[in-house]
Amino acid sequence: MKFYLIVLVLLFQSTFFAQDYQKAKDPKMLGKFVFKSIQEERYGIFLDYIFTEEDVIKMMKKAKVSKSEKETVSKQMQDVAKNIRLGSKKNFYNIISSGKLKGIVWKEVKLIEVSYSIREKENIQMADVFLICSFKNVSFNIKLDNCFKSQTWLMLDQIYLNFD
């Protein structure tokens, strides 16, 4: 009986945690998921939407370039992905703290619009995504720079907080 209870608890936990991560089918969904991670101050969710080295490999399989170019670009992008992931926690918390310094209460921020334009080069889709936000009478945006489509839409750069 105790064994079955442990199995049920483990199944419940894995189902609960799996609900946090959803695949971003387009840049708009990516923007909404990243916004949610910032609003809830949940770095783990944010990290889920950053390229891994494996995501780069999957994306480069679709690229319409020579094999040698694929290998070169893939290696460069894998290095970028690795570095972005290493610096992502600092980037994430800098965004949150920069907003708080301006008086932003992240849980009360409204996402007004997700703006983007998809570009394509060599069969690779990419976009910069802008999260247009408002808090009380303050408008600002969060830029997700260099987003690409692998199996799903992911970030391959830092994010930036801009107050106008």
Question: Your description of this structure?
Answer:
The protein is of the alpha+beta class and 164 residues long. Helices cover 49% and strands 26% of the residues. It has 5 helices and 6 strands; from the N terminus they run H-H-H-H-H-E-E-E-E-E-E. A hairpin with a 3-residue loop joins strand 4 (138-149) and strand 5. The longest helix has 35 residues, at 67-101. Residues 3-19 have low confidence and may be disordered.
Ordered list of secondary-structure elements with their pairings:
Elements: H1 2-18, H2 27-39, H3 43-48, H4 53-62, H5 67-101, E1 110-116, E2 119-121, E3 124-135, E4 138-149, E5 153-155, E6 159-163
Antiparallel strand pairs: 1-3, 2-3, 3-4, 4-5, 4-6
How does the overall form come out from the CA principal axes? elongated
How many beta-strand runs? 6
The overall pLDDT average reads: 89
Tell me the Rg in angstroms: 18 Å
Uncertain runs are: 3-19
Span between termini: 61 Å
SSE succession: HHHHHEEEEEE
Largest sheet: 6 strands, antiparallel
What's the tally of helices?
5
Work out the helicity level.
40-55%
